[in-house]
Structure formats: C-alpha cells, structure tokens
Design brief:
mainly alpha
Length: 481
C-alpha cells in the first residue's frame, strides 16, 4: 500500500474512531483537549520535532531549547491557567492534600540558585510546571474520574495507530539506527525505543485495567463493543512493544498487569491488607537480590542481553565519579550540561545524557534532599491509594502505576523527569487523593443534597425523607422565594 494511501486510511479511521467510539464520554469538557495535547507531545515528540525544525548541535538543543516548543507549551500553560481560574480552583485544598509534591516542586525551583546554569534550570522548571497545570485541568473537571479515562483513551487512540503507521510506511521517521551497534531500532511516534516502550507500557496497563473493570458487564451489547476495541488496542500495543525491544517496559507491563489482576480477585477484596503488604515487600526483595546478589546481571545474561545492562554499569560509575553535592545536587536539570557532560562523554559511558536510573538521576540534580522528598511523596501516595482501593475503581490503576514506577526507575530515568509515566502516575494519584471515598467514580444521577439538623435524624433515617418531595428533586413551587 502506498504511504499516502495508508496515511489517508489512518486519518479516516481515526476520525471514525473518535466519532463512533463506544466508550466515548459524550459529556466530556472541551478543556480536556489541553492536557491531551500537552501529554501527546510529552509522550511522543516535541512540536519542533514534529515540524522538522532544528536548533543546531545536540549541546545547543539541551541548553537553549527551541522557540517553537516554548511558544506552543506556553500557550497550553496559559490556556490551562485560564481554565483553572474559570473554575475557581481551590488551591488551598490542593496544597494541603499534596504537601510532599509541592515541597519537591518548590525545592526544584530553589535549586536553580546553586546551579551552574541557573537560567537554563529555571526555564526547564517553568516548562515542567506545565505538567502540573494540565493535570489540574483534568482533576478540576466536574467528573474527574471520567476525565482521567477520557484523556488516557484519547492518547492511546492517537499514538498507538500513528506509531504503527510510521514504522510500516515511514521507516525514515519510525526507525533509527543504534549509535552503539548500528542495528535498527523502532521508535514509532517517539524519539527512542525506550520511549516507545513507555508508551506501550502505559497503553497496556490502561486497557488491561479498563477491561477488568468492564468484564463483569461483558454480556451487555455496548460493553462488548468496548471490550473488542480494548482487545484490538492491546494487540497493537503488544506488537509495538515487541518491536521496541524494551526489556524494562516489557517486564514492568507484566508486573503492572499482575498487580491489576491481583487487585480484582475476590481474595484481595476479602483480604486487602495482603495486597498492600505484598507490593512494597516484593520491591524490597528485588532490591536485596539486585544489589546483594547482582541478579540484574545474571538475568540479563540468561536472556542473551549484556550483563552490564547495555552499558548502564559504566554510566553509573561515570556519573558518580563527578562528585556532585550529595546534599542538594547540581541543580534542577543541570547535571547534563557544561563541563560535566564533556567529561562523561569522554569516559567509557560514551555519548549519554541520562543516568538510566531514576533515583540516581534525581540524586544528581537535587541530592539527598530531593530523594527524601520523593520518598515522602511515594509513601504518602501509596497510603492514599491503599485507603481508596476498595471504594474507587481508579485506585487499582494508581496501585499498578505506583508499582511500575518503582521498578521502572531502577534501570531507566525518564519516569521522574516529567515524561509520560510520571505525568500519568501523578494524574491518577492526585485525582484519587483529593476526592473522598464517598465520591464514586462511576456515573450517578445528580441529586440535590439537603442538610439536616441533628434532631431531624433518628435511627439512621435521613431528614430528606421528611421534607417536601419537590425540594428533594430540586423543584420549587411557583411563587416560592
């Protein structure tokens, strides 16, 4: 099939999918396209890359950025702020419920003071601040749980098919050649095979979670259509994941799906403490085996991969030899700039610009203070997720993402740098954290809440049962004030 015909067919099928999607939320706010657009660029390529623009050398790109990207991201941030202002967003409530996250973001901004490149550090902080604004646009929606699902489904609908299109019909865009081995690497709509792996990881976890939630209603005609569509995207996701050859994302997808399956079993519902205990315990056991018995190298060798995890051991030695400030780090997003980058590129690690370990990456930028704040955020979010696990469907998705985030960052560093996995994790966890368990995530008819005086409630009978019916159903008699 000619590429032009394949592109036309993809475009038509995408329009039909968005138009006739059986899982479509017809009451979704138009403002949800703002976070959809932002996360689309975060998960794939920057606007300038989609347009084919260039800023010169690699070092210039890392230090200066691109004016096209700044313009588009600034516009999306302004639109997000306008939406939040129009909704009279309760900032005090958000800050009080997410203290650890706010402390981490604030410390990242302060770290620009001691950075060798304070202006670059501050600009990157403001750019990444947009991640939190678009998350708040979703969270502040009148039906935040449905809004989260809508944004995730739209992202998968856009990025998974276009990645297949680019790999099959535009190999000059969907495929690159490894700097180290010269072998072909499939990247789809992203910029690296690891980013394509993360996209497949998020897509696979989302559709697995959505399928498990709808499975009990599979006899319903509309639900069957959604399950068939979910199955098609799961197949496409696994096909892309296999092409990406991203071992970390493949293992993490298996872990995330196992957590989802465990969370939806009758045993876990009857014994919720078992699952809450097993997730952190499993990670602790992994740490002991990985660093105490070097199980990572043995497993990599057993499956025919480099025992050094594709040079990660050399990278970790090189970055630790730079001796950054162990307490406060080099400053937000400042480590991979200037003389340090030159020294690392001359080492056996080669031309790299990330530590391939999320915890180490954060340590290099923000030191032990930043790592401690991240630990506080992970602990507080885990407690909230476990507390809401039995009352909110979205909490099981949050638990799977929380677990995957822990394991993924052992060999990759993108998850704590404002990229897809980190943004989706915060999107789900923040939505789960602020809403009380009494608020259900499925659609319920809107009713009017009637306050009752203490003396009006006897033996569990609500006062609304004794007021006039027209007031309960929101109707006022004519002439009433």
């Amino acid at each position: 099939m000619p590429p032009s015909l394949a592109t036309l067919l993809w475009f038509i099928l995408t329009l039909v999918l968005f138009r006739l999607d059986p899982a479509k939320d017809r009451d979704a706010s138009p403002a949800l396209w703002i976070p959809t657009a932002w996360i689309f660029f975060t998960a794939s390529r920057l606007p300038a890359q989609w347009l084919g623009a260039s800023v010169g050398t690699a070092s210039q790109a890392m230090e200066e950025g691109n004016p096209i990207d700044r313009l588009i991201f600034s516009g999306l941030m302004i639109l997000s702020i306008v939406v939040l202002m129009s909704r009279s967003f309760n900032w005090n409530r958000f800050f009080s419920r997410n203290f650890a996250l706010i402390a981490l973001i604030a410390f990242a901004l302060v770290s620009a003071v001691w950075s060798d490149f304070p202006l670059v550090s501050a600009k990157r902080w403001f750019r990444d601040l947009g991640n939190y604004f678009v998350i708040l646009v979703v969270f502040s929606d009148r039906r935040p749980f449905d809004a989260v699902v809508t944004v995730l489904r739209r992202l998968c609908y856009l990025l998974i098919p276009v990645s297949i299109l680019m790999i099959k019909y535009y190999p000059n865009l969907g495929k690159v050649f490894s700097f180290w081995t010269g072998a072909a690497e499939f990247i789809g709509a992203t910029t690296s095979k690891n980013m394509l792996g993360v996209l497949c990881l998020v897509s696979g976890i989302f559709f697995c979670w959505d399928t498990l939630n709808r499975w009990r209603d599979r006899k319903d005609k509309q639900t069957r259509k959604i399950l068939i569509l979910n199955g098609a995207f799961i197949w496409m996701t696994l096909w892309l994941l296999n092409l990406s050859n991203s071992a970390t994302s493949t293992v993490c997808l298996a872990i995330g799906c196992l957590v989802l399956l465990a969370a939806h079993t009758k045993f876990s519902r009857r014994h919720p403490s078992f699952l809450k205990f097993m997730v952190p315990t499993s990670f602790c056991i992994y740490l002991i085996l990985a660093f105490g018995l070097d199980i990572n190298g043995d497993l990599a060798g057993a499956v025919g991969r480099d025992p050094t995890l594709t040079g990660r051991s050399d990278i970790w030695k090189a970055v630790l030899s730079t001796h950054t400030n162990p307490i406060v780090g080099a400053g937000y997003e400042s480590f991979w700039l200037g003389d340090r980058l030159t020294v690392i590129w001359r080492s056996p690690a080669g031309h790299v610009n990330e530590a391939h370990n999320g915890y180490l990456e954060l340590y290099l930028s923000l030191g032990l203070v930043g790592v401690s704040l991240l630990f506080a955020l992970l602990v507080s979010s885990y407690r909230i997720i476990c507390k809401k696990l039995s009352s909110l469907k979205l909490a099981s998705l949050g638990l799977a993402l929380w677990t995957v985030l822990l394991f993924y960052n052992m060999t990759e560093s993108a998850a704590f740098k404002g990229q897809l996995l980190w943004v989706i994790f915060l999107l789900v966890v923040i939505t789960v954290s602020v809403h009380s368990p009494i608020e259900r995530d499925d659609r319920l008819p809107q009713t009017v809440t009637v306050k009752a005086f203490p003396n009006d409630v006897r033996e569990g009978v609500a006062a609304r049962d004794r007021v006039r019916p027209e007031l309960v159903h929101g109707r006022m008699p004519r002439g009433a004030a």
